[in-house]
Design goal:
The protein is α/β, with parallel strands linked by helices. It contains 11 helices and 9 strands. The protein binds ligand BJW and zinc ion.
């Protein structure tokens, strides 16, 4: 299933970076954004995941996030997340760069996780910046957008919408991880949303071996050194097994 060249790279690698997207959480029951099982049949994510949409119709945007918060609170990491958490223990330098907001990498035990698009478990007031946990805003789950207890400003989820800057620290750390990676994995992402989508290319330009794991080919596939087609929840445990054998 894995080429000899890839296995040798895995044995000799000092630094590994992994970019993940919605596909890695699909087997946990989190819907992806694009494609047939796209998250929200009525709207494209581009139409809801932006500040203007939130200001124009906060109730609609909140309906989408309540729905997703409920899904995410009720599901668990899958074998793909757990395999990555185990891989981290085998390498000195191992970073997960995730576009996901579902916290499943941390829940699976991964330690070095850079969240590029925020985290659905946090929320903040757009007027005064005060942070709220999901529990704190749960009482307002009555079709109305939650309001800040201090200043009555609108509260939003702490995620990155289109047109917004990514968290600077997470971005800088991700760029560094991509540049120093001997192997760079792109897993379960359509790799079309920038600047996250530039990381595989940044890594490759700096000499990384680029590996894509996805159920279907993407725009990145032509640039990848290795394309492994299949479900990440099935492939990553096999990869972990192959790496463990390499180290014996
Ligand atoms: C499996 C599987 C299984 C399924 N196993 N695989 C024109 C050109 C270039 C760039 C731009 C442009 N116009 C605008 C931009 C910039 C824009 C952008 O990139 N747009 C593109 C759509 C063109 N980017 C931004 O705006 C970013 N900010 C920025 O650039 O700041 C600078 C700036 C400032 C001011 C003005 C302008 C620029 C911010 C992007 C924020 C993205 N936010 C979202 C929502 C987050 C919050 C939330 O979750 O609600 O992030 S959108 C959504 O897409 C989410 C995801 O993280 C992101 C990526 O999606 P992902 O993860 O790849 O999911 P899918 O569904 O696309 O793919 C799933 C994949 O899994 C598929 O390939 C399946 O095959 C696969 N799969 N099951 C393995 N079991
Ligand atoms: Zn406030």
């Amino acid at each position: 299933m894995f080429s000899e060249r890839f296995l040798t790279k895995l044995r000799n690698a000092r630094s590994i970076a992994v970019l993940t997207g919605a596909g890695i959480s699909a087997e946990s029951g989190v819907p992806t954004f694009r494609g047939d099982d796209g998250i929200w049949k009525k709207f494209k994510s581009e139409e809801l995941a932006n500040f203007d949409a939130f200001i124009q119709n906060p109730e609609l945007v909140w309906e989408w996030y309540w729905h997703r918060k409920q899904i995410i609170a009720s599901i668990r990491p899958n074998p793909g997340h757990y395999a990555l958490a185990e891989m981290e223990k085998l390498y000195n330098c191992f970073a997960i760069i995730t576009q996901n907001i579902d916290n499943l990498h941390r829940r699976a035990g991964s330690k070095t996780v850079y969240e590029l698009h925020g985290n659905i478990e946090r929320n903040y007031c757009i007027a005064c910046g005060k942070y709220f946990s999901n529990e704190e805003i749960l009482q307002s789950q009555d079709k109305k957008a939650p309001r800040c207890v201090t200043c009555n400003g609108l509260v939003r989820p702490d995620v990155v919408w289109f047109g917004e800057l990514l968290p600077q620290d997470a971005w800088n750390a991700s760029e560094r991880a991509a540049k120093r990676a001997d192997i760079f994995f792109s897993i379960g992402t359509s790799a079309i949303v920038y600047p996250a989508a530039s990381l595989p290319e940044i890594a490759k330009n700096e000499g990384a071996y680029l590996v894509e794991i996805n159920v279907e080919a993407t725009e990145l596939s032509l640039k990848a050194d290795e394309v492994i087609l299949g479900k990440s929840g099935e492939i990553l445990p096999k990869l972990l097994e192959a790496i463990t054998l390499q180290f014996q």
